[in-house]
Amino acid sequence: MQAPALPTNPRIDRPARHLEYRHLDSLVIIPTYNEAGNLPELIPRVLAQGPFDVLVVDDNSPDGTGALAGDLAERWPSRIKVLRRPGKLGLGSAYVEGFRHALEAGYTHVFEMDADFSHDPASLPALRAALDRADVVLGSRYAPGGGTRHWPLWRQAVSRGGSRYAGLVLGLPVRDLTGGFKGFRRRALAQLDLDAIRSNGYSFQIEVTYRCHRQGLRIVEVPIVFEERRAGQSKMGWRIIAEALLLVWVLRLHPSARKEAQPWAR
Ligand SMILES: Nc1nc2c(ncn2[C@@H]2O[C@H](COP(=O)(O)OP(=O)(O)OP(=O)(O)O)[C@@H](O)[C@H]2O)c(=O)[nH]1
Ligand SMILES: [Mg+2]
After folding, report:
1. Residue whose CB lies within 8 A of the most ligand 1 atoms, among 89, 91, 117, 148, for a mutation test
2. Whose CA is nearest to atom 20 of ligand 1?
């Protein structure tokens, strides 16, 4: 006798088989605040790039991004998780929570990515491949072959100038320090003292790269082309720039920020 067909749930559109990955390879952490116009289109594009699962960290976005992310996670439960936080707690703390989740879950490769299509999901495989020869990979607008598209001149100047300034003050041999499209080997993240990270805005990117450098981790840059956000509003402002200008001096002058706590000393 033939087994009866399993009932199907018409609300759940089963993903194509090649989109299902069972082992925990790569996790792409996407922090969101009011990204409802981008996220539903972005996530399937990320899943289609290879062994990349997604963790959305949403800060109770008033535009309902968290609920949309929840719907997507219901559709691809093995590949999408959503961390919903009660309010806008900042980009840095969203990533730190995401890193902790990635380490606890057992992912071997962990990536940061914006939700607004500024970071092209098609670059993920190149970033992942670079982690075969490095501990940390930075998607770089200022490496040969990289660039920005549709960005006003003032944003280009702030970004490029900010990277140069932070690199000079901190003695970091990196071209793009302010970008947020980057990846880590698990062992690199595990070495960082996540509790010690002090910046929460965009300076978070500078601080994490600096701490990786101080740990002696191998950092490489892979060229990316950065696009202006597709939908929604920018959260960039003078406060964020001021935080970054100040932070580099705090990092340079504060001894506890200069040297990572050694795991055996804790
Ligand atoms: N969870 C969370 N995500 C945030 C917060 N602030 C920004 N984000 C997200 O972080 C990513 C980067 O922020 P953006 O506003 O795109 O920053 P940007 O790329 O410098 O500026 P624009 O693209 O011009 O808006 C986006 O996915 C945002 O939705 C926050 O406080 N909490
Ligand atoms: Mg953006």
Report:
1. 91
2. 236
Element spanning 222, H or E: strand 219-223
Highest mean pLDDT among 8-12, 48-52, 240-244: 48-52
pLDDT of residue 150: 87
Which atom of ligand 1 approaches the CA of 89 most closely? 31
Helices (H), 215-237: none
Go through the domains of the chain in sequence order and give each one's CATH number: 21-258 (3.90.550.10)
User: Model pTM?
Assistant: 0.88
Atom of ligand 1 lying closest to residue 232 CA: 25
Helix (H) or strand (E) segment spanning residue 83: strand 80-84
Q: How many residues does the chain have?
A: 266
Q: Distance between CA 213 and CA 111 in Å, rounded?
A: 17
